[in-house]
Amino acid sequence: MIIFAVCKGRKRDMTFAEAYVQLKAFARIDGVVLGVVWLVGFACFVGMFRYPICGMLCMAVVFSTPFLVAMRVGSFRDQVLDGVISFRRAFGYSLFTFFYASLILAVGVAAYFHFWDHGFIGDQFTLLLSSPEVSGYARGMGYSDEMIQMSLDVWKSVRPVDMAFQTIWSSLMLGALVSVVIALVKRRGK
After folding, report:
1. pLDDT, tens digit, for every residue of 155-171?
2. Fewer CB atoms < 10 Å away: N or C end of the chain?
3. What was the pLDDT predicted at 93?
4. C-beta separation of 52 from 128 below 8 A
5. HSE of 140 in the Cβ direction (CA atoms, 13 Å)?
6. What value does the mean pLDDT of the chain take?
7. Does residue 5 carry a pLDDT above 70?
8. Distance (Å, rounded) from C-alpha 111 to C-alpha 15?
9. Is 11 a residue whose pLDDT tops 80?
């Protein structure tokens, strides 16, 4: 497989190492963009407890993520690689984008829970689960009041750094699944 790089208007063969560095550099930029979008989504998640419209914005961010990453993979393919990208490279680009975005989100989540939360989200979940509608629904699903209280106690005992690691883990796992689909859709041969 020959990889080309544009070097002052002329093409030259690019080594695997150079192609890998190029892929990571472009994915890093798109990861920062996605990370900022995710931070806005996280802010909307926190804000939805006071302003319900923020919940809709949070869901919009969540559902737009695969489309945003697919758009950026397509842009990388068309603008940098002259319209040709393999499944492996598209998957790697997408996965690196999710990786860098998850690092940014994890830092934001850790900072929020360390400096600003002071139990706000845990209290909001307590209020939500103590409402008659939700507690009745939970009981109907087979959860006892003790189980609900134990879950809330566990939630309140989680440290900010644990939240950050959980954010990275879940973002990468979901990102890997979405990356497979994105790579299948965006791959294009010569």
Report:
1. 888 898 999 999 999 99
2. C
3. 95
4. no
5. 6
6. 88
7. no
8. 40
9. no
Cβ 76 vs Cβ 93: under 8 Å: yes
Residue with tokens 């959860």: 143
Cα gap 95→173, rounded to integer Å: 10
pLDDT digits (tens, 9 = 90+) for 86-111: 999 999 999 999 999 999 999 999 99
Q: For residues 143 and 120, give the distance between their C-alpha atoms in angstroms, rounded to a whole number.
A: 24
Q: Tokens 């997408």, residue?
A: 94
Q: Tell me the residue length of the chain.
A: 190
Dig out the tokens for 46 from the structure: 């926190």
Sign of the four-CA dihedral 90, 95, 97, 98: positive
Distance of CA 156 to the CA centre of its chain: 23
**Nearest-angstrom CA–CA distance, 61 and 69:** 12
CB 84 within 8 A of CB 18: no
**Total H helices, total E strands in the chain:** 7, 2
C-alpha radius of gyration, the chain, whole number: 21
- Vertex 141: Cα angle to 136 and 147 (nearest 5): 80
Indicate whether this model's pTM tops 0.85. Answer: no
Tell me the C-alpha distance between 152 and 70, whole Å.
37
